[in-house]
Amino acid sequence: MVENKKLMGIIIVLVLVSAVSVVFVKMYPSKEEIYLSTNISDFSPLELWNATLTATDVINSTANVEDFRINVGKNGIIKEFYFRFWGKNPSGEIALYQVSMGYKGGLFFVKYPSRLIKETTHPLVFLSELEKVGLLDLAGGGVIEADIGIGSYDANGYKVYAIKEGKKIPLKEISFDTDAYIEIWSFPSGGGQGESAYFLWQDIRKAETVKFDNTTRLIKR
Which pTM was predicted? Predict the structure, then answer.
């Protein structure tokens, strides 16, 4: 009898967990599956974002990046891709949305409930800035990842840049006392030395301190 009671208890717990999972995680099965090319040379921020707006219920103007990762092989094929962003739906519900790419380029969309939205940067603005500055030129392979950050960064051991309108502006150091910004890292193919940190120009305005490289001309913040 004791064993039967234990078994029933386990079954009840599993049922409850399953029920909670249904409530808190929503998959977005599309009527027509959405595929993008896995070749990085064909990557289009606008195409990706339009697909996301089509597949999810997020209000475009409320979207803010949470994190991002793309891993490209030396053959130029995307091996791993995902990004997450906060947003609201037409009912005013706040959620964290995740977009990921499968092996053959199929896009998958998941929605998680959230209590807040951090005001970072719009996903399309973020992706377009990466594209304009050349961080998505990964035909020879490499990794780009970004996340919410907080802390200090300096040019000892790795390079640090601000990016603005397709230009890389070298920094000596930068520090933040807020986590409402995105830190972006670039890693060479195969790992090893050579990583660099990047910050969007709009986030430079949020920094507590900024020291430009000696070769950098005075720039209006």
Answer: 0.82
Scanning 57-135, the segments in alpha helix (DSSP H) are: 123-132
* Beta-sheet pairing, 159-164 with 196-200: parallel
Q: Do you know the residue count of the chain?
A: 221
Contacts of 60 by beta carbon, 8 Å cutoff, 6+ apart: 53
Residue 219, helix vs strand vs coil: coil
What are the φ/ψ torsions at residue 218 (nearest 5 degrees)?
A: -60, 130
In Å, how far are 16, 62, 136, 146 from 19, measured between CA atoms?
Answer: 5, 29, 40, 33
Taking only the tens place, the pLDDT of each residue in 84-132 is 999 999 999 999 999 999 989 999 999 999 999 999 999 999 999 999 9
The helix/strand/coil state of 103 is coil
Cα-based angle 83, 127, 203 (whole degrees, multiple of 5): 95
Whose tokens are 């079954």? That residue is 11
Is residue 146 within 8 Å of 183, Cβ to Cβ? yes
Measuring CA to CA, which residue among 70, 64, 101 is closest to residue 181?
Answer: 64
Q: Where are the beta strands (DSSP E) in the chain?
A: 26-27, 64-72, 78-88, 94-101, 107-113, 142-148, 152-154, 159-164, 167-175, 182-188, 196-200, 209-212
For residues 129 and 166, give the distance between their C-alpha atoms in angstroms, rounded to a whole number.
Answer: 7
Could you tell me if 109 and 98 are in contact, meaning their C-beta atoms sit under 8 angstroms apart? yes
Distance CA(50)–CA(86), nearest Å, equals 16
Q: Are 163 and 129 in contact (CB under 8 A)?
A: yes
